[in-house]
Design goal:
By secondary structure, this protein is mostly helical. Helix content is 77%, strand content 0%.
Length: 398
């Protein structure tokens, strides 16, 4: 049987690549929609996992910082074909949007479109998308008074103390408060996830994750290598984000705009464009990297921001059963989730609202786009194209 194993493994990898690439071209609508696409393709049609294992995997990825839908895709690939399966699954799902956003960044670099009306329209799209995310997340992340107060604390501190350390400090404080307030959460069922990863390999991934998190800033400070500093910024952003792609916006904005690496106009234009492409919103990092350093910078940005997701999913899958059974860990996570909501609300005001809504016509157009997305249930790419066209028309009014 041994000679057939490589062929069987290769066949499994090719199948994962084919299916995940198709999903990468068609999965519009954000992380919740992605999980629906995954369920339909991987669970219902192909039966690669049973329902309980899929639910356990989603619970783990919601527990971890980083892009939850991408981590679920990686985890499915891992359970199907090991570590290589996870890597191949990620490449197929992510590469289409990475390529699209790098091409958009190259367009902005080659042509001076920073002041164009359609760019302003994309910035208004960013207002709409983040507002929709806040309304969808608030009932789940802050359902009671205690967590609402934690979210309010995060809003106030993040707006009044705008430093590199403010958001990390808010998240750590919220974890401690959650650990204390919600430490007696009811026990959950044990996880039944089985993965072909040894605990030794998993532990090595976790050591590497924390090692890079603490050593990269030191190395970037000690050297004059611009690419290393940018890699560190992307890596830290990918490591500290709870709540998905929309929450990474304020972290990335404060890493790259105040430093002068890019303009706020270019940043928000790319964020609007990221809504028009399928796949994970974290591929926005490819756009940012390409604006600063061409296509190689785009690939560097994508690799750096997704690296923590790989290390965390590889490092925690074998230990998830024990973690999930710890009520104190779950309590800390409840506090972190409430703080995430507050950080997102603060980002909605600054820089998104303050850089996009200047006059009553802007607000009126944002209300129309919001209705298209939320009430009329139109696809995000339709909203983005409408935003770009409407922005060009608004430009004629100013």
């Amino acid at each position: 049987m041994a000679p057939h194993e490589p062929k069987s493994a290769l066949k499994a990898l090719l199948e994962i690549l084919m299916v995940s690439t198709r999903l990468g071209f068609t999965s519009f609508g954000g992380p919740i929609a992605h999980l629906g696409y995954f369920h339909d393709e991987y669970i219902r049609k192909r039966k690669w996992l049973d329902e309980k294992s899929y639910a356990d995997l989603i619970a783990l990825c919601q527990f971890l910082p980083g892009p939850a839908s991408s981590q679920v895709g990686i985890g499915i690939g891992v359970m199907r074909a090991g570590v290589l399966g996870g890597i191949v699954s990620f490449i197929g799902f992510t590469l289409p949007s990475v390529i699209a956003l790098i091409l958009f960044a190259v367009l902005l670099r080659e042509f001076d479109v920073g002041e164009s009306g359609w760019i302003h329209g994309l910035k208004i799209v960013a207002v709409v998308v983040v507002a929709h995310a806040i309304l969808g997340m608030a009932p789940k992340l802050a359902p009671d008074l205690k967590r609402k107060m934690l979210a309010l604390f995060a809003v106030v501190i993040t707006l009044l103390w705008q430093t590199t350390f403010s958001q990390v400090s808010v998240i750590l404080f919220a974890a401690l408060v959650g650990f204390w307030l919600f430490r007696n959460q009811p026990e959950q069922e044990d996880s039944h996830i089985k993965v072909p990863i040894s605990r030794r390999f998993a532990a090595g991934c976790l050591v590497l994750f924390f090692g890079l998190l603490f050593l990269l800033p030191i190395a970037a400070e000690a050297t004059a290598w611009g690419w290393l500093a940018r890699f560190d910024s992307f890596y830290r952003s990918g490591s500290l984000v709870f709540g998905g792609g929309h929450v990474v916006l304020p972290l990335l904005e404060r890493e790259f705009v105040p430093t002068g690496w890019m303009t706020e106009e270019a940043f928000l234009a790319g964020y609007g464009a990221a809504q028009a492409v399928p796949g994970p919103l974290f591929t926005f990092a490819a756009y940012l990297g390409a604006v600063m350093g061409g296509w190689t910078g785009g690939l560097l940005g994508a690799a750096a921001i997704f690296l923590p997701a790989f290390l965390l999913i590889f490092g925690t899958l074998p230990f998830w059963g024990a973690l999930r059974g710890n009520s104190k860990v779950r309590g800390a996570l409840l506090g972190v989730n409430a703080a995430v909501l507050g950080i997102l609300i603060a980002a909605f005001y600054d820089p998104i609202w303050t850089s996009s809504i200047f006059a009553p016509p802007d607000f009126a157009f944002a209300a129309i786009l919001f209705s298209m997305l939320v009430y009329w249930k139109l696809p995000p790419w339709v909203v983005v194209l409408t935003g770009a066209a409407g922005g060009a028309l608004l430009g004629l009014l100013y």
